[in-house]
Amino acid sequence: MRSEKSADNWQKDYKRSVKQLGLWTLLWVLSTALLSFGPEAVWQFDALFSLMALGLNLLLGIMMVLAMVRHVHRMDELERKIFLDASSFTLGIGVIAATAYGTLEDIKLIAFEPDIAHLILLMSLTFLLSVWVGNRRYR
Amino acid sequence: MKNRLKVLRAERNWTQADLAEALSVSRQTVNAIETGKFDPSLPLAFKLSRLFGLPIEAIFEDPAT
Predict the structure, then answer these.
(1) Do both A2 and A64 map to the same domain?
(2) Which residue of A6, A23, A65, A74 is most buried, as measured by CB atoms within 10 A?
(3) What is the pLDDT of residues B9-64, one digit of tens each?
(4) Do A40 and A82 have their domain in common?
(5) Host domain of residue A98
(6) How large a percentage of chain B has pLDDT more than 90?
(7) Domain co-membership, A70 together with A29
(8) Residues in Cβ contact with A27 at an 8 Å cutoff, skipping those fewer than 6 apart
(9) Which residue in B has a C-alpha nearest to residue A8's C-alpha?
């Protein structure tokens, strides 16, 4: 009963976009590691190499974002809704947490400088949890 | 939104996976529409209408009536 000839293509396109997103994400994570550890461990803070690593990191980051946009376009409407809900919730939590976290050192509630990595971790976990909750809601 | 999707699908001996494939959506989406947890967009409702050969109002129940 394949009345819609694009059915097979949709699934193939979807799987391909998942793979592409995974690949660009992996490359971006690797380039982030290179940017973080390379200057000290590999090229002894040579500015040229650091700039090249930064450029590579930004380029791969942009490719990852474009792959994410393509992936969202491949989603069906329910998946897109779950993704949008999770993104909205994550953005809200991120803004609230960043604002509060940024003031903690100023008001002497913490003794260390706020680390952006903590915020990224919080937002990543929030997004994953939101997607999981969304999927359960519509199961 | 209430609908007759499950009945119409059963009349044709289609599984949720069959319907999902025909609509180019996931099986989860078909299940969510059938159970009334998710209302499809107008383009998807028209797709269902074409697939079952029925007008949209014969598949979906107007909640206002």
Answers:
(1) yes
(2) A74
(3) 999 999 999 999 999 999 999 999 999 999 999 999 999 999 999 999 999 998 77
(4) no
(5) 76-139
(6) 91
(7) yes
(8) A60, A63, A64
(9) B21
